[in-house]
Design brief:
With 269 residues, the chain is of the alpha+beta class. It has a single domain, classed as Phosphatase 2c, domain 1 (4-Layer Sandwich), CATH 3.60.40. 36% of the residues lie in helices and 26% in strands. The chain has eight helices and eleven strands. The strands form two sheets. Strands 2, 3, 4, 5, 6 and 9 form a six-stranded antiparallel sheet that branches. The longest helix is centred in the N-terminal third of the chain and has 23 residues. The two termini are 22 Å apart.
């Protein structure tokens, strides 16, 4: 059995920021979704996040077409996950070099969370504090780990998750693209089931909308585009303190006809 995933997305600058430094990408041909939350002075955040999604998409696509095996290679993960991780590392190199090329983009960086469907599992490459959630059977589960100072404190038992949500340190990242030459990129694979839904978002969502409300929205609104719009509207109704970007994707079984089409496509590729 092979699955398909169809994504919808909404992005908004929120109620406080003057511009939107988030970027996102939906690539149906690759069944790939990416969110990125840029940071830096002037327009540098926008530059960093847009570079991140474009370079990641383009490099992953070229590696997928050629079957290139990246080095280093994690044998515990599939080829596609390794390729996605390598593409994110290339994006980091581009952003890092651009940030050091002149004073106008000095110190720019971005988070990035990418989720790509590979047959029956989701392959994730992640850095920063944007998030990927899995919604299954009425329960929401965070698949990524926040690379932030408050989450480090939570892991050490210095803060509870509730305290972390209101901590003044919650915007301090421990990892991001562009901050160093070769940052660690988290790679995750999770087996999917038909009926699962994926939620990718920047911190403008989960800092304004509690996880309980995320669950209620996904439970009550089966239309992905409407669910995205509803969550962004709720974030803005709660003050819209940051840019907010939401991607939601529904996992479905491929039909017999779709599987046959895929076979023909591969045969003539």
């Amino acid at each position: 059995m092979i699955f398909k995933i169809e994504f919808a997305a909404v992005s908004d600058k929120g109620k406080v920021r003057n511009n939107n430094e988030d970027s996102y990408l939906l690539e149906p041909a690759l069944e790939l979704g990416i969110v990125a939350d840029g940071m830096g002075g002037h327009n540098s955040g926008e530059v960093a996040s847009s570079l991140a999604v474009k370079v990641t998409r383009d490099k992953y696509d070229s590696m997928r077409r050629t079957g290139m095996k990246p080095n280093p290679y994690n044998e515990k993960l599939c080829l596609e996950t390794n390729q996605l991780g390598f593409a994110v590392q290339l994006a980091n190199s581009v952003i890092y070099e651009a940030g050091n090329a002149g004073p106008e983009n000095k110190g720019m960086g971005t988070t990035l969370s990418a989720a790509m469907l590979n047959k029956t599992r989701i392959c994730i490459a992640h850095i920063g504090d944007s998030r990927v959630y899995l919604f299954r059977g009425g329960i929401i589960q965070q698949l990524t780990e926040d690379h932030s100072l408050v989450m480090e404190h939570v892991k050490k038992g210095l803060l509870t998750r509730e305290q972390a949500e209101v901590s003044p340190l919650q915007n301090i990242l421990t990892r991001a693209l562009g901050a160093q030459k070769t940052p660690a990129i988290d790679l995750v694979e999770t087996q999917l089931e038909a009926g699962d839904r994926l939620l990718l978002c920047t911190d403008g969502l989960f800092k304004a909308v509690k996880e309980g409300r995320l669950t209620e929205t996904l439970q009550g609104e089966p239309d992905d585009a409407k669910a995205c719009a509803s969550l962004v509207a709720e974030a803005n109704a709660n003050g819209g303190p940051d840019n907010v970007t939401v991607i939601i994707g529904s996992v479905k079984k491929k039909t017999f006809k779709e599987n046959i089409k895929d076979l023909f496509r591969k045969s003539y590729a």
